[in-house]
Amino acid sequence: AKICDFGLSQEKFSPFLRDPSTGAKGTPLWMAPEVLRLEPFNEKCDVYSLGILLWCLATGDEPYEDFEEFEPFFRAVCYDDVRPPIPKDLLPSLAKLIEECWHPDSKKRPSCGQIVQTLYHVMIEVAVHDKDGIEFWKENCLDRQSIYWDDFMDLFLEDYVYLPDEPTQKQIEEAQPFQLSEYSSRNLKHASVVAAEWKRRFGSSTAPANIAELEQEFEVKLKCFKTLIVTEGPGDAEMVDLEKFGDVLQWFGPIRDEDGEVRILDRVAEVLGNEGFHGDITAPKAQELLNAYKEPGMYLVRFSSLHGQYAITHLNAEKVPNHHRISCKLGKGFYFREKYYPTITGLIEAVTPVLGLTKPCPGSKYQSIFSGVGTDYLYKNTL
Question: Containing domain of residue 253, as a range?
Fold first, then answer.
């Protein structure tokens, strides 16, 4: 990262300053109206400049390009309150911050501390598009760009997977066995509630004989999630950073479906459990893998270079690699030929006759996760 500024135009000796009558010090396009008018000013003039700078960063444009002469520019900015146009598709929270920063009344501009707090929210909303994901990061990691994996998973499970301390009877009755097992382990009161539920379901107050297997299946789903979302931090620490969190939600979100159920871990495991899925490999790497076999119809599925999108790479009848981008929409699934497919299995079944697919390319790095467990159970709980 590189950081630069305009340099110090004026040392601050008092709360209010005034430029000399010979002219304002600074760059006019970024200067606050009160500075241009040679009026007393304070640190809020820098807030104005930051607003202009944020606009430039958001749009990629230079401010006030319509003005070719200083006098019309001066009148427009200083007396008509003209500002650069805010794009309609700009993130609302960022647009609001920019407009507050360049407010004509310097007293109504936010303080630097307020700007920092607002920027925390803006950065989260830029990186994460899922509403539950935004809420999760704001509540737990507002001023952080990353969090330790263990802390992240504890918070995630508490918010979205495990039963609350005081669940309703309906939540108890609809809970999966691993959820009941975890709830039972908290204290004796919870254990008695779970024992009653075991008795209702199975006629015995003890956990079902296959509870260890069910818990192992859940652990596999967590391992899949971890494999995707964890990045290496200082000292080889396992971290979850904001940008990667947003990417994973783009590919596998939402966290909470329209019916209120949380199925993201199921979707992650279903995709990674497919032997044709190779994840974050590049198009050249995909071609290299397929060319090693030279079998027409062999294919693999991977993440596209575009956020939230996938790609199918396969060898055609002439053994030439072809790439097909597959869009994926939050809550609907994979889109192919005007239809959504909620699972990767359904997608592959749909594209197979169209692309002439035959068999998946071996060598997916994710298959070792399912060693000794298999993948049949994955297809019961996806969308």
Answer: 143-259
The tally of CA atoms less than 13 A away on the side-chain side of residue 22 is 1
Cβ(56)–Cβ(62) under 8 Å? yes
Q: What tokens were used for 358?
A: 């035959």
What's the Cα-to-Cα distance from 199 to each of 163, 177, 207, 208, rounded to whole Å?
19, 13, 9, 10
Q: Are both 54 and 87 inside the same structural domain?
A: yes
User: What's the half-sphere exposure (Cβ side, CA atoms, 13 Å) at 185?
Assistant: 7
**Using only C-alpha atoms, what is the Rg of the chain?**
28
**Max intra-chain CA distance, the chain:** 92
Q: How far apart are CA 275 and CA 258, in angstroms?
A: 29
78's enclosing H/E stretch is: helix 70-78
Are 155 and 220 found together in one domain?
A: yes
Within 10 Å of residue 103's Cβ, how many Cβ atoms? 18
Tens-digit pLDDT profile for residues 319-369: 999 999 999 988 889 999 999 999 999 999 999 999 999 999 999 999 999
**Are 356 and 324 part of one and the same domain?**
yes
- Cβ contact 289:276 at 8 Å: no
Least confident of 76-90, 139-153, 319-333, 348-362: 319-333
What 3-state DSSP class applies to 67? Answer: coil
Please indicate, yes or no, whether residues 162 and 120 belong to a single structural domain of this protein: no
The rounded distance, in Å, linking the Cα atoms of 190 and 243 is 37
Output the six-digit token pair for 342: 């909620």
